[in-house]
Request: fold
Amino acid sequence: MFKIARKKVLSSTVQLMEISAPLVASSAKSGQFVVLRLNERGERFPLTIASTDKEKGLITIVFQIAGKSTLQLSTLPEGGVILDVLGPLGKYTDLTGVKNAVVVGGGVGIAEIYPEVKELVHEGARVRTIIGARNKDLLFFAEELESAGSELFIATDDGSAGRKGFVTEILKELLDSDKSIDLVLAVGPVVMMKVVSNLTKPYGVKTLVSVNPIMLDATGMCGACRVTVGGKVKFGCVDGPSFDGHQVDFDELMKRLGQFKELEGLSKQKYIDSLKCEKCRE
Amino acid sequence: MPLIRKKTEMKKQEPLARAKNFNEVALGYSEEEALLEASRCLQCKKPFCVEGCPVNINIPAFIKLISEKKYDAAVKKIKETNGLPAVCGRVCPQEEQCELKCIVGKKNEPVGIGRLERFAADRERESGSIEKNAQELSKEKIARVAVVGSGPAGLACAGDLALLGYEVTIYESLHATGGVLRYGIPEFRLPKEILDIEVNYLKQLGVSLELNVLIGKTITVPGLFKLGYKAVFIGTGAGLPSFLGVPGENLTGVYSANEYLSRINLMQAYKFPETDTPVNIGKIVAVVGAGNVAMDAARVSLRLGAEKVYIVYRRGEEEMPARKEEIENAGEEGVIFHLLTAPLEIIGDPATGKVRALKLIKNKLGEPDASGRKRPEPVPGSEYTLEVDTVVSAIGQSPNPLVPQSMPELKTAKHGNIVTDENTGETSVPGVFAGGDISTGAATVIAAMGAGKKAAVSIDKYIKKSL
Ligand SMILES: Cc1cc2nc3c(=O)[nH]c(=O)nc-3n(C[C@H](O)[C@H](O)[C@H](O)COP(=O)(O)OP(=O)(O)OC[C@H]3O[C@@H](n4cnc5c(N)ncnc54)[C@H](O)[C@@H]3O)c2cc1C
Ligand code: SF4
Reply:
């Protein structure tokens, strides 16, 4: 059993939780993730470790309410418990030697880039961070990213904060004006990572993305998370989640992510109905 | 008494009924049936069956106790060397081990040793004697030992070490114990309740279980020694799935057998949406491979409503590695076999990325290859296509690479298996022992248990030497 030590609502669809998991906290590094299972009937699902507090034995996760499991997680209170937490999983992202990085976060990816931004700053790199969302209300972590020591750029679809438009427009300007950028790191929706990778390719700038395929055991035993990288089959859970964006087959990744869509929708709807039902009984 | 030529039949659920449910297929012996079967044993002075058993159960002795109706004593006799008789009685390939060697089997059908083993163990469980039979152990412990992985190798090693007086902790990465017994072998072949009872028995012996700990990531093996463990046993199994290596293997609807079976067994997707984990079972499923894993995947598909299920296997009937009993069961339930056939390509719908068909080619058998079996060779011009919407790859698993990757000083062989001394389980690192599928590659439950038991003996020696 793993206790939820703190919970914070970041936006209408995004929440942050600090979970007590001392063993995970003590060995986690940037880019790694955990797999959660909420209860006996629950599914196993991965979430990136956004930060750790090794002394207090806490890990921070930030999640977007999407399917049944994240919806159910969002209903758990501070002090509540999660049945299973396994981690840290995946390879950590090696950022040594980077001098001038642009880090792009979209949606819930904004939280996931936080440990990497911190590490890059720690490595002595210049770090510019671009975050994007549909509107101002869906943005979060701006202060954290700035106080971590990065220059912050914001893009929203409706212009309610920062620049109106996409993160890639800002990225393109940076790439055009600064030829010394040696790493672009992008975390967010698959479409965003694909567009970023397509954009950086002609500039020849190394681009890392963090993929989010469907996972089951997340320890390399099932291969549900297969991703084609440079024409080779890789497992997102043990070979990744960080891969060279210029090599990832994003179209295949999107198709594979949609593989259980109907069933996932069914599961979520059933849960929503059961919540309504609980309310009507009260 | 006149010799009875045939094994006493064990009742099974009717094929058509059982292909639609997850209840156990084979129903076990009644007392009368067990007594009848036990009477077929000749009580040989030099029992060859015992030689055929990887953990050398004293087979004539336990069969004699059954025929004397001393059932508790019979199961105790088995447990002197095998802690999981209810499991082994169900899943061991007896036809290649004890029963292959049985004298009666020279001219007639061998004694049904496995069925009798199951009978004794089931009887103990059903009469509630398991707890009564658990031994009182000393509170004083010799030292602490960590066991990595809770499959049969880990469970057997932990149990024996506990009996020898050690404080044992099992670290398991999944949220449940049992390894393949939990996530791989389906309920209808091995009810999970049996596994739970065996694991509870270990807990009674004082073994602690730490789930959700991935050794190599959450804690490393050197980290375990820092925590005060004097020795470590690695029984992490062969969980790394192989894929077909043909075009189309990442289409949706293509699963590794591990994914397919884990969704269904470990995550209980067969109860979806009561449980949260989904699985898409198509109307027409092709399972590639013909081992136990393949049979399980095929039979599970039928139970989840597939209309047609094919086994596609590149060699012939004789070469199928699955247990004979399970091949027969699969056939009776309606699985269709495409033997001497190999996949060339999985064809998908370009728009959706979903599987649509499987392109196959016929094989003929040529000269024997390195494994001694005749090498399958493609017959030119014999290509054909089978319409399918689900493909399951069950062509083998290799050893789990995580622990070796996190420990470069641990010697591994070509296929990633940890190099161990066959008799002691010692690895290249002092104090680190290994056994089961992680050192042999995918093998059997009983071989894994045997390796776990041998390692327990050498761990005991190793620790006592250094005390
Ligand atoms: C579907 C299927 C059907 C089978 N049918 C039969 C049969 O009928 N008869 C038979 O004799 N054999 C059968 N086998 C083979 C048999 O199950 C295996 O040979 C046996 O389970 C191996 O035991 P093990 O303890 O070595 O490993 P496993 O059973 O694989 O257990 C390894 C355990 O270690 C855990 N683990 C792995 N890495 C780590 C880590 N780094 N840290 C912590 N824990 C870890 C795993 O989660 C797992 O629980 C079958 C196998 C499969 C897959
Ligand atoms: S070889 Fe057969 S007949 Fe002889 S003791 Fe063993 S089981 Fe009995």
Q: What stands out?
A: DSSP finds 19 helices and 16 strands in chain B.
